[in-house]
Amino acid sequence: MTASTDGASLAAPAHLVHRYFLAMSVPFLIDLASLVAYAILNDAPQVLLPSIIVSAIFLAAGVGAGAWYLILPIRGFVQGRIAYADIERRLCNLPRHSALVVGFMYMPMIGLRLLSHRLDITFGATLQKAGWPDIVANLTVGTGFNVVLTFFIVSAYLDRLCEFLFMTRRVNIGIFHGRFRRKVALALLFVSFSTMVLISADILSYEGDRLVREATVDIITSATGAVLMYYWISRALTRPIARLDVGMRQVADGDFSVRLPVTSDDEVGHAASGFNRMVEGLAERQYLRDTFGKYVSESVAAAILDGNEHTGRAVDTTAEATLMFTDIEGFTGLSERMTPTEVAGALNTYLGTVVPVIQRHGGVVNNFIGDGLFVSFNLPLPLEDHAGAALRAALEIQQSLANTSLAPGLKVRTRIGLNTGPVIGVTIGAADRLNYTLLGDAVNVAARVEQLNKQFRTVILATESTIRAAGAEQSCERLGETDVRGHRGNVVVYRVGPPA
Hints:
- By secondary structure, the chain is an alpha+beta fold.
- It has helices spanning 3-24, 26-41, 48-78, 84-92, 94-114, 132-169, 180-205, 208-252, 267-295, 298-305, 331-336, 340-360, 386-402, 441-456, 464-470, and strands spanning 317-328, 363-369, 372-377, 414-430, 433-439, 460-463, 477-483, 490-495.
- The longest helix has 45 residues, at 208-252.
- It starts with a helix and ends in a 5-residue tail after the last strand.
């Protein structure tokens, strides 16, 4: 963690608390605006001071005390004094509890104002006497508006808070008992019917100029409230969805390091949590594939990981393939004169030269056999011109080795044997140790042909099946028939490339 991050972390608790108190002060500010509008429209500036005093007692003091109680444990976690498990549920419920605090304070406050004349309560200049329908409507709609608005304002605050906690403490919400559809339904129903209820109550309560004034105040208040409601609802609901969309785009581009903060306990938060689990699985899968690729061919690793039944086995397959066996000429004698470190270095240089050539031509290294390789073309990685690709790879291997020293002053040649024929790709072994390999007579012939290079004094020897499959009869020298141990009948072999 950098010094600047440390400073931000130390300043964060106070900053977070201030933002929360600012969010909880919105009902008080809206109430002040409503009072000013009422005083102007009714030409009654004398109602402002006593009404502001009542608002300060209930909203500023009452809501402030409730907000302090709700944010206190969360601040304790940020400061490192409380465990996350002890505050997670309170964190999830912060919007609900905050809305309830506002509701408990707002309803008696507005009731005291509206009923001051009827209850003969005098605390200075009061609002004009209100009709019962208007009293009931203002109590329910006014309280409901502030409760709903507070819920979404604090939800937007919680989104920022959880994002901060995720970035600095790597914690996420893991409790999901909320419902996204309920939040949306609550907001839509309230915005749709609140103005209608207020106007209906005005019609039932007043006449003449009073009706016009009251209806005008309610329309202005409702319109302002609808704008505020839309703004905070959009912030609370759409920001997590937009964040999820960005994260999915990053994963689609191959970035498996992305993780998202879970900022709500509803379906959207659950989706963000599921997204994180999905990306962790993909990252683990990619890690396994990369790790497998260091020990087996990447295509074999992919075949195992992509198996439909998730058995850890590549699908058994029969196909025609071109097999290649390689062996470093005279390496046994060389290794006896070298230290183990020098032998390892020489082999690594050799493999670092040969393997990329094989892979570039579509071949798969199935096994390392001492200083030799067993390579296949067309299985398990499909390759259309597998025989031609094997011939081209063999020639490039010899060319690359001619320009490479395995150790200072040490240049070697490798003998290569090629054969084409039907093989079976299978996974063999016990339950706790498996190996993917190729079986069939064609494999045996390829291995024997590599050894025949000594007899024919060649470096690349291929059977007639490979030469014909590659269409290379004119460019390769036919050496004749030969007996291959373990194979019924003779095999025609060809020299590939210049004489040894």
